[in-house]
Specification:
Layout lengths: L5 H21 L1 E6 L4 E6 L4 E6 L1 H5 L3 H31 L7
Antiparallel strand pairs: 1-2, 2-3
Helix pairs in contact: 1-3
Amino acid sequence: MSGFNLQELMSQAKQQAEMLQKKMEQTVVEASSGGGTVTIKMNGRKQVLAIKIDPEAVKSGDVEMLQDLVMAALNEASRQVDRQMQSSLGGMLGGLGGIM
């Protein structure tokens, strides 16, 4: 098995994992719903960083509508994270990019 160095392969895998973690922490997306009534800011690890709700939405008293808008903005932010991570890391991960 000349040319095959398991230690080097493991080192490369560790470096790629560290790069992935760093990229996930640096990626930030923002998505909104209801024409900007609800805005969600999320990082690449899908942690919600901020939620902004237009005060007018609260005044209406329509809790179900507000819940739907929050859910829609969260789902869109999650989709944006997925797209960004796939496009920016697809090359680094080679054939594994499709599993993200």
